[in-house]
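EI: anyone free to look at a 435-residue chain?
SC: sure, send it
EI:
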Amino acid sequence: MAVMFATLLILASVVGYITEKNIINPVTLFSGLWAVVVFFSSLGFYTMQVPADSTYTWFFAGTIFFVLGFYFNKLFLNKYSFLFKKKTIVSCKKIVTPRYRTLYTLSVICIFFSLFNLFNLVRQAGTLNLGVMQAMLQSGEYTSNDSSIISAVSLLIISPVSFAIPAITASDFWFGRRDKKLLILTFLLIVVNMLSTANRTTFMMLIIFLVLAAYIKIKERRKSIKIEKHKRRRIKRSVFFLILFGIVAFAIMTMSRGSEIFRNIYLNLAMPPRMFEIWADEINKQQVYGYGIASLLGFFYLIFYVLKNLFGLNSIPGIVQSMYDWMMLTDKQWVWPGDKIIANAYVSLFWFFYVDARQVGIILGSLIFGIIASRSYLRAMSKTHTAKTVAFYCMIFYAILFSFVRIQFALSKYILAIFFILCFAYKDVRLAEDC
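SC: here you go
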């Protein structure tokens, strides 16, 4: 059954490519990703336990409803803007540009904050080896003595800005002025973050976002009749070298942690169905339901965190705290998805939907996620796209790409990163010559 579902998902991926005429659309990416996950998990390599057919059925259903959500928005909802303010007609043309000085300042603050964390981590670990530091962070051996104020600053400012900067920089590189200061600060922030968290994600994010933005740029230029072919070739060469550099860097960082590259890739993609089953059994035993809060935990937890710490709320509501505790449990508690495999996290976005409303949650959550992905994608690919819409799609693209780990909307830093991009990172500048 797994092979049949994987084949059907590949067909859905091809349909997405045919209708959208590119490989970065959500349908092709999401369907192709889950075709690989379903197929890999059915192989049972490295003692990986093969999930039940019912698990594959609901993963397949979730992916199909994501696809339906994408096309439902494209055909029926995309013409609506859902703005909270009325549109006004202005005589001046406007362009969207990053608030460079704000980004410089916040990047420097984030770098110094990450350096402080790195110093504490190295002091406790006694080494700069990424594998040792990551094991220390995951095992809980690393202890932080941060005050409540520093913790709040980290949650509300440092983590979201650090998360958003790669998308903003990648968008600026291809659709802005390629600001050198922003590029250098982003690179420094990523290096320090990578060392202080022993995590390669931020580095890979920048590479992926640069490639994604470049691809959108190529598509934009193909739509222009007057554009020279050599400019498209130049962008394509840049994309090729970016991908090559990313692959080599990923391999080097993986080996530096003492991991086998192909085993690591296989297990990361093969374990989500089994991890889903393990943690689905746990919430079924406890009769836990999230009612939408699990999937949007990043939003709800953020609201009540602010109310508690700034406005004196006695405590975070029980259901929100329960969902937070369950999410943290999946991250910190190690389980056995295989006879010789121990792992944490990787429960996939479908687990969060399942916590909310079981099978109905998988269907509705996937449908809504498909609508959100469709809206951001169509805005980024439209003729009126801006650096902001491209940066926003980079964030949604990330959520799709790492959907085999978790739903990103469960993380407060992800919610705030999107809010930062949409509301603070950019400004409208009127062109004087048109006024």
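EI: The CA atoms of residues 202 and 212 lie 15 Å apart.
SC: 👍
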